[in-house]
């Protein structure tokens, strides 16, 4: 049971799953296979929101000119957030991303 484990052990066991949470569709892996690990699930929910946002900007990117600008700017922002999330995972932090973190907390699994 996870309640009996220390926080450090939960982080260490969930670290690799949390790391892949920020790699596009791979966010689904911890959502399906590591739901019992709070650390992996925390980051997987944020990764899922990023993934949905990336799909949305890809759809918008089809529109000429303005859509392309939104796509490139959004890709940069989501890329930076994903990289920051991966760094925080490696540090073992529960880092709540601005805006994304609020939306991720509302996800019930």
How does this model look, in words?
By secondary structure, this protein is mainly alpha-helical. It has one domain (2-105). It is 69% helix and 0% strand. Helix 1 packs parallel to helix 3 (38-60), helix 1 (7-20) packs antiparallel against helix 4 and helix 3 runs antiparallel to helix 4. The longest helix has 26 residues, at 66-91. It is elongated. The chain starts with 6 loop residues before the first helix and ends with a helix.
H/E series, N to C? HHHHH
Report the C-alpha radius of gyration, rounded: 15 Å
Give start-end ranges of low-pLDDT stretches: none
Number of helices: 5
N-C termini distance: 18 Å
Strands, total number: 0
Report the sheet with the most strands, covering strand number, pairing sense and barrel closure. Answer: none
Q: What class do helices, strands and sheet pairing give?
A: mainly alpha
- Could you say how many structural domains there are in total? 1
Describe the global form.
elongated
- Binned strand content: under 5%
State the helical fraction.
55-70%
Mean pLDDT: 83
Topology:
Layout: H1 7-20, H2 28-33, H3 38-60, H4 66-91, H5 100-105
Helix pairs in contact: 1-3, 1-4, 3-4
Concise description?
The protein is mostly helical and 109 residues long. It is built from 5 helices and no strands.
Please name the defining characteristics of this protein.
single chain, 109 residues, mainly alpha, 5 helices, 69% helix
């Amino acid at each position: 049971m996870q309640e009996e484990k220390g926080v450090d052990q939960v982080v260490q066991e969930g670290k690799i799953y949390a790391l892949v949470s920020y790699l596009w569709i791979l966010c689904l892996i911890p959502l399906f296979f590591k739901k019992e690990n709070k650390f992996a699930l925390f980051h997987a929910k944020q990764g899922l929101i990023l993934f949905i946002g990336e799909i949305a900007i890809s759809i918008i990117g089809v529109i000429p000119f303005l859509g392309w600008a939104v796509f490139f700017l959004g890709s940069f922002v989501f890329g930076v957030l994903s990289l920051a999330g991966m760094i925080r995972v490696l540090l073992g932090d529960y880092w709540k991303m601005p805006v994304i973190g609020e939306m991720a907390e509302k996800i019930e699994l």
